[in-house]
Write the structure tokens for this entry.
Amino acid sequence: MNEAKLNRGLNVRSLTIYLLPLLLAVWACGGEAVTPTAIPTETPVATPTLAAQLIPTEIPTDTPQPLAAPPTRSQEVTPTGRPESPTGPVALACPISGDNLLINPSFEPPFNQIGQKEINVANGWQPWFVQAGENFPPEYKPADPRFTNRVLDGSSAQVYFKSFGRFIAGVRQTVIGLEPGARYQFSVYGHGWSCEEFNMCSDGSSYNPANMNMRVGIDPQAGSDGRASSIVYSEFRSVLDTYEIFCIDVVATGDKLTVFTYAAPDGPRQNQDIYWDKAALIRAP
């Protein structure tokens, strides 16, 4: 029993020793209870997390396909010698077939001297040329048959030329006994030889050629001047070394007409020759 009392006394004493400083602290603060101050603890700093960088994925696009080129129309080729003319639209093929109304259409011998000795033209034909300014009368003669590309039909062809000179010239033929109002076509094969120096062209081919300005025409008024405004001409062409066909057609206004060949090279050359062969004047069916 005494031991129990002793233990209680010790407990009271221990409690008093513990509470006494606390009570003194309260008294010192004005009697207010002291709230224990929370000791701040270091707030952990969040480690910044690098956001994953999204690499933009290229959105696939359709590979552009080359656009198909729009269909192109083939260039319309106007047949040789078929322009519109004062005598009405042309509707004939080139050439047409039928009875040939020309005399000596293949320019066969004999060749007749007309005026000057240098002018020799196939039978049935007449020369025409401009003699003014820079233009001189060319020399006319039969083509040399030794050059096979110079003769197309028969044994000969008509050639005219002027070395180191310019000319406007051709041959013509007037045909009579025609039917007024009927359509007639004139066709003839032609080509030029244009060579700056003969030693460059001994084989008969052209070298540094001039523009030969070749065409064919029909004069419904049956004149003799190749420059007359009444002549219906084909378009100009420059044909070299190989025969090509020239055509033109008109409606006859009377009972006769004149057909013309025409050439006017645009510059002088040592060799400047014009060849014509295998002509025809045919009434359209």
